[in-house]
Amino acid sequence: MDVDLDYYTGQLAPLTEKGNYESAATLVADLPNPDIAEILSAIDMDEARRVMLGLDAKQQASIFGYLRPAVQAEMASGMSRRQLAALFELMDHDERADLYNRLSDSERWAVLPGLAHAEREDIRQLASYPEDTVGSIMTSAYVTLRPDQTAGQALDSIRLEAPDVETIYQSYVVESDRRLVGTISLRDLLLANPSARIRNLMIKDVIRSHASAPKTDAARLIARYDILAVPVVNDDEQMVGIVTHDDALDVTESESTADQHRLGAVARLATSLSESTITSLYRTRVGWLVVLVFGNVFSGASIAHFEDLIARIVSLVFFLPLLIDSGGNAGSQSSTLMVRALATEDVHAKDWFRLLGKELAVSLLLGLSMAAAVSVLGYWRGGMNIAIIVSITMILIVIVGSLIGMSLPFLLTRLKLDPASASAPLVTTICDGTGVLIYFNVANLVLNF
Amino acid sequence: MDVDLDYYTGQLAPLTEKGNYESAATLVADLPNPDIAEILSAIDMDEARRVMLGLDAKQQASIFGYLRPAVQAEMASGMSRRQLAALFELMDHDERADLYNRLSDSERWAVLPGLAHAEREDIRQLASYPEDTVGSIMTSAYVTLRPDQTAGQALDSIRLEAPDVETIYQSYVVESDRRLVGTISLRDLLLANPSARIRNLMIKDVIRSHASAPKTDAARLIARYDILAVPVVNDDEQMVGIVTHDDALDVTESESTADQHRLGAVARLATSLSESTITSLYRTRVGWLVVLVFGNVFSGASIAHFEDLIARIVSLVFFLPLLIDSGGNAGSQSSTLMVRALATEDVHAKDWFRLLGKELAVSLLLGLSMAAAVSVLGYWRGGMNIAIIVSITMILIVIVGSLIGMSLPFLLTRLKLDPASASAPLVTTICDGTGVLIYFNVANLVLNF
Q1: Interface test mutation site (partner B, options A296, A308, A360, max chain B beta carbons within 10 A)
Q2: Which terminal residue of chain A, N or C, has fewer Cβ atoms less than 10 Å from its own Cβ?
Q3: Could you give all domains of chain A from N- to C-terminal order, each with its CATH number?
Q4: Is the pTM of this model over 0.80?
């Protein structure tokens, strides 16, 4: 069931044109907040701001969290100091630290004085973690309990804190020095005897992440252990925040995007494709393209070495793209399968040798099938000699291409590099060079024979 | 913080060798269940089964849910009828329906009589939804409330049901005919006045999915609306189950794998790479490889058309792989970016024309950079004429390749096909054919001039 966003955008237009922002706000108020965010992103920014300011403060903060970063910054820059401070106070702590990092200095100074001291400290602390660390995506709004509280007392304090925290379904037990010593779910608290001590109810081996770890670490733990949130500690094992499952899902999505881009030989984009500028897109692509040009020089050099042969039998060139591409295609299939299997921990670096035999068998079958297809073509174009040359070449090229494609991700892993750097274009280029050598050597051998 | 799994595997060996399965079970019992599942998967299956049967029944069921499907089936087939029935009774409802589908007929008949009538009906119902539908991944263990209950009564019934359901943090409000009319979070229930009616507390516009919808629909709703679970209804809007966030995350991961495989021109694997047989791997790869061979025949045919030119200036062949590969690489970069942007809804089918101008600008810049690099090489190999030919060709090839690569995913979307079918090998093959034509036509023109 999806909300028809175009319908609402259409209904908004006449209202905002007449300056009737209050009715416009009422029209969308009951929709889910992510949908309101999408509708507001699609209309004029000044009008979107006015419609949003017609909603209640808590809903404003939630909608704001669903806007794209660039839209957030633009919308914030048109708000009064008081409006911005009110918004900051109610936003999720992790999102407001993000926004803070994206504001100009003057905007920051407009916001900070309107906030309480504790909130200012909180923003400064969260905003200080480097991007891509767990610290940069954690929130400081969670429930902590003490080991000597009773289950009944704990439920009371959870009720009190509920309006201000991101999740009440998991609480964290800390000692007076903030060392994390346990965790307990709301489910277990509800089922427990109200007079039982937290110390005796809590789970003591807490899955935890470190603030300085890469942010994928928190996402991985949440996925592996099916938990709602993972607590984050600093180097002294003191609790400093939590990462919630929805933020982890965002990390997983953006990592998956980065992986796919690498597989397509595109560097990491700082923002989404639709928001990227021409120069930033140029920069993410030019590096690999130029590197690959120089890789292809080897293919060219191999060809130059065989110029006499080519001049003698020009029809060999007919099969050149077909044969070398087939090797590249088989190779990029193999590397695609391995890169993803390594990323999802389906296979591990130590499995390379075990998988080599399987790859050899699969690629032999593939090579034989393709040789059958191409031999007919070879016979038709150049007679029996050419048919023999292209068939033998095809089998060798597919096997060698597959082995290169499946081994490269393992080699990169061993070198502590990202296996996804074994992109289809890189594998294709390497297989092309090898393919040229195989082709003309086979041709020479068969013709001399 | 990760558990050192190798350490535990090493500690288990001497215990299982001596047949001391009870101590072995005690050794791992306090670890998180996903870790126990991984440790048991790494040791002999018979021994793993005996270690597991030493744990308490509830933990057995949870660990079992984390085993890979093939391991589950193998382990289940070695259990007694009574053990299997006990396991079934405690497993998550969605997982046991999955397992049921994977058992042999005789194993099913061994299990079913040991279960209560309601459980049997539940399994039959869940197992009846086709794979890939929302119905196939939903669970029937959730809390339902009635609109005329009070918040206090609702909390009491949640406490009662807590041990048997997957989540108590979101409850669903149904009328007596099971029509879904609202939802309420445990958080709101805890904060509400205990005598308030659910009818007045619940959220009435419930995000919902349909049992017959593709399973990605449930995953998408959970990600978009940051919810813990999405309720599932049948065609009569009656509630039949929920899909929880952890099951949705599994769907997202496996879809991401399928997308990457398609981008590498590999068909969907029925199981993980490490469990795939040689013949199933062959089948997922051979189709595209053969199709691409015939695509490459066009490149070959273009080359045949220019055989006289090639025989006259054999050094043109030196640049052939380099130039056509550059077009293919630029094209697969563009298609990679577009496929992912379309999949994450960053861009939409209607944005094609708007993005075309940007692509043109980026690819012109890329073409100029690469022409600069390759012109030096051209001058060195074949003098001014060749330098001019390869520079002009490079610019045109990169622009045309990029435009093909960025347009193909849009075209596939328009044809209601999966844009990820615009795989790097397909784009490369199309760009290669176009590249050959551009190269030799430019060469002819420049040389005649």
Answers
A1: A296
A2: C
A3: 5-134 (1.25.60.10), 137-245 (3.10.580.10), 273-448 (1.10.357.20)
A4: no
